[in-house]
Design brief:
heterodimer, A: alpha/beta, Rossmann fold, seven-stranded mixed β-sheet, 16 strands, 19% strand, B: mainly alpha, 16 helices
Chain lengths: 413, 367
């Protein structure tokens, strides 16, 4: 406790305060660093940086500013990055083709670190400081819920590329999405299991700490029972668990034909490994939480032959898919995942609605978005229904030779 | 007899009230000015930033009562925040349904909705204080690191429990049919408690902060607070002087939990937040601990300054995108290198240039 009795040393206090607080603020004043995350084509709002904020052009300027919020850092960073890439690819393409209403699109992106408080802050900032006309984001449903309520309050339309929880669009008439919702995904997997695989006895093992996993489990069980199937066992784990042997042993005793695992890829990989070790040879089934290259890295041979539902497959032969995959690979030199495809679709669907909308005001734009029918997206033909959800098909992928391969497309009814 | 003489020396209630009411009036006036003048001028984004600053100040100053004043190491402060937030959120969300049939913000400034919100804050604070008592009573008999482990465990247990709750009920007919128990267990689970009306304003944040600051400053100068400080300086010596250390530790803990609960309630009703068990875990607790350590353990103004800096800094650094977290972390490292005792040590900001009591003039340069 020597430091407690030490003289105050006003200079070191002053210095520390400077280092901590003022240093970055001084840096913040230099215009070169400004708008680092802004990607504008042509004369964008970045050139107008003044004070602490970048103000967009007055209405009638030659850019339309769109806001994006996503988890660019944090534990779900790959989700945010992929989505961002997809959005930027779409915006570049739209601008090269002449933009919307004769104006170029510009995107202002903020990182929310995967935290809901940050999501609320950045959406407030996008709307009230940057004055964006519409917002794209988030991947995680809990963050879309936080940001969506702000967007709804200010009457600015928001499109979530990939939040599948039904509650997101129930916030209000400004909130849309371009992905399917969990009940539909549960229905698709149940239908595929019952009709394509012709299984009757299925066990379920889900993550009780994830709303996504719990919701998908409930929807799968409901649909599967309605189709005449039987759920022989229902077991739970908590995301991040390492030992699943107790649950798997119970499941083994009921000898199911398949195990439905609506979790995220890390846990699913571990479950698969331990299941095979215990001699459980049932087919593994899952949802879009499996969509990561890490799945086969962790699961290896154990995950071979498993099926999961997803938003798109890069192997699909539709021209939209093949053109998108080619452009994406040329720009980012990697194969686009489902999130990139959904990001791309969300930006293009927004631009298309902007083109049809009489003005860029929130109400007009929301009405135009709600009137979207048969939009040819990479992730399928999208129509926005009365609940502002996307009606669209899902694809089923099978892990073959360590890679997800296209297996089937299941259309809405 | 000694006790009677000490009691006679204590200032009367009139004195105490005059010392508390004056400053509280000043804070009330400040809160009004903030709400009616500063907020319309600054705009919604800075309004949100001001609320974030105020809430973080509440958290840092209240944790400082335990970690700074009493010298105990609690790392479960976000847990108490969660208790307050969820209780207050449930009160206003379901209460609004029962009273007015919808969870929308009801009434204007200081209207019916605001009163419900105030009640929610107090109930949330009391629940949180109760939780603080339950956690503190057995664990504060322990010394040193054990309390840290117990508070960490409390936070994690709470997180897991909250994740098990059911989905929020948002259909009015279902809410009418629901029993209080069903409502109390429908807190959103892992997805988070969404739909709580946005009642938090800069006014309420600064009123609550004013309340806490008066309590903290008055405490520091009182015999009660001196007992806290003596436990920090030397627990054995304090005990030898006749201080019931466990009792005082529990008092500090309960008081801190009460204000953390109020901060949680304000957080729950803030624009654009969803109460999410995952985000009110130990990561959040550590953010608060960092504020206290940075400001100086035991310095109220230090905790305030640190809370303001650590809230404002990430927001201004947002422009630097990828570099933001690097600069932020680097600032903390530089800070700890040059000022390991925190910004102000155990002093208040206005005491910095005063000579420390009992230090010899020669000692100044020696350290």
């Amino acid at each position: 406790m020597r430091s407690d009795t030490r003289a105050p040393g006003p200079w070191s206090v002053l210095f520390s305060t400077l280092a901590l607080g003022l240093g970055p603020l001084v840096l913040g004043g230099c215009d070169k660093m400004r708008g680092g995350s802004e990607t504008a084509k042509g004369p964008g709002p970045a050139s107008e940086a003044k004070g602490g904020e970048a103000k967009p052009d007055a209405p009638g300027g030659d850019t339309i500013l769109i806001g994006e919020f996503g988890s660019l850092t944090g534990s779900e960073a790959t989700f945010g990055q992929s989505t961002h890439n997809g959005i930027m690819l779409a915006v570049d393409e739209i601008n090269q083709a002449g933009g919307v209403k004769g104006k170029k699109l510009a995107v202002k992106t903020y990182d929310d670190q995967g935290k809901s408080q940050e999501a609320g802050t950045v959406v407030t900032r996008l709307i009230t400081e940057d004055k964006v006309v519409a917002i794209l984001g988030e991947v995680a449903s809990s963050l879309s819920l936080a940001g969506g309520r702000v967007a709804q309050q200010y009457g600015i339309p928001m499109i979530s590329p990939s939040s599948t929880n039904p509650q997101v669009t129930q916030i209000g008439d400004m909130i849309f999405r371009v992905c399917f919702i969990d009940p539909y995904q549960g229905f698709v997997m149940a239908k595929f299991t019952r009709e394509n695989l012709k299984f009757g006895k299925v066990a379920v093992l889900y993550d009780q700490a994830q709303a996504y996993s719990k919701g998908l489990k409930d929807d799968f069980i409901k649909s599967f029972k309605e189709m005449g199937g039987e759920i022989v066992s229902e077991q739970a784990y908590t995301g991040g668990d390492q030992d699943f042997s107790a649950q798997l042993t119970t499941i083994k005793g009921t000898s199911p034909e398949a195990i439905f695992l609506p979790g995220y890829y890390t846990d699913v990989g571990n479950v698969a490994l331990q299941a095979r070790k215990l001699g459980v040879n049932a087919t593994l089934l899952g949802g879009d939480g499996w969509d990561s290259a890490k799945l086969t890295e962790i699961g290896g041979a154990a995950i071979e032959g498993a099926y999961y539902s997803n938003h798109y497959s890069h192997e699909e032969q539709r021209p939209e898919v093949q053109a998108f995959v080619k452009k994406y690979q040329a720009k980012f030199s990697q194969v686009p995942d489902g999130l990139a495809a959904l990001g791309y679709d969300s930006a293009r669907l927004l631009a298309e609605a902007m083109g049809r909308s009489p003005s860029l005001g929130g109400k007009d734009l929301a009405a135009a978005l709600a009137a979207t029918r048969d939009f040819k997206g990479v992730t399928g033909v999208i129509s926005i229904d009365a609940e502002r959800n996307a009606k669209k098909p899902a694809v089923i992928l099978q892990v073959k030779g360590g890679k997800p391969t296209y297996s089937a497309t299941v259309a809405p009814n | 007899m000694l006790g009677a003489r000490a009691a006679a020396l204590r200032p009367g209630y009139g004195f105490v009230l005059s010392r508390a009411v004056g400053p509280f009036g000043a804070f009330l006036a400040l809160a009004f000015v903030m709400q009616l003048v500063v907020v319309p001028w600054a705009g919604p984004f800075y309004e949100k930033l001001l609320m974030d600053i105020g809430i973080n100040c509440l958290l840092a100053v209240s944790l400082n009562l335990v970690n700074g004043f009493t010298g105990q190491f609690s790392i479960g402060h976000a847990g108490f925040m969660a208790v307050g937030g969820y209780v207050a959120g449930a009160v206003t969300y379901y209460g609004s349904f029962v009273l007015w049939g919808s969870p929308a913000v009801h009434g204007g400034f200081l209207g019916g909705g605001d009163l419900l919100f105030l009640a929610g804050c107090l109930v949330g604070g009391l629940f949180s204080a109760g939780a603080g008592y339950l956690v503190g009573l057995p664990s504060l008999r322990l010394r040193g690191d054990y309390l840290a482990i117990v508070t960490l465990g409390f936070g994690e247990i709470l997180r897991v429990l909250l994740q098990q709750t059911n989905d929020v009920i948002f259909v009015p007919a279902q809410i009418e049919a629901a029993t209080p128990w069903q409502m109390a267990t429908a807190l959103g689970g892992a997805l988070g408690f969404s739909g709580i009306p946005f009642y938090t304003t800069v006014f309420w944040v600064f009123v609550m902060l004013g309340l806490l600051l008066i309590v903290a400053f008055r405490l520091k100068e009182s015999s009660e607070g001196r007992a806290f400080l003596s436990i920090r300086e030397n627990e054995i010596a304090a005990e030898a002087m006749g201080i019931d250390t466990t009792r005082y530790k529990v008092r500090a803990f309960v008081l801190a939990a009460f204000f953390a609960g109020i901060a949680g309630a304000l957080f729950a009703h803030e624009t654009g937040t969803t109460l999410n068990p995952r985000e009110l875990g130990f990561q959040k607790s550590f953010d608060i601990v960092i504020m206290v350590v940075l400001g100086g353990m035991g310095s109220i103004s230090g905790a305030l300054v640190a809370a303001v800096l650590l809230t404002v800094l990430p927001e201004f650094l947002r422009e630097f995108a990828d570099w933001r977290l690097v600069i932020y972390a680097l600032s903390l490292i530089i800070m700890m290198r040059f000022r390991p005792q925190g910004l102000f040590g155990i002093r208040e900001i206005w005491e910095l240039w005063r000579k420390p009591p009992g230090a010899s003039p020669a000692g100044r340069g020696a350290s």
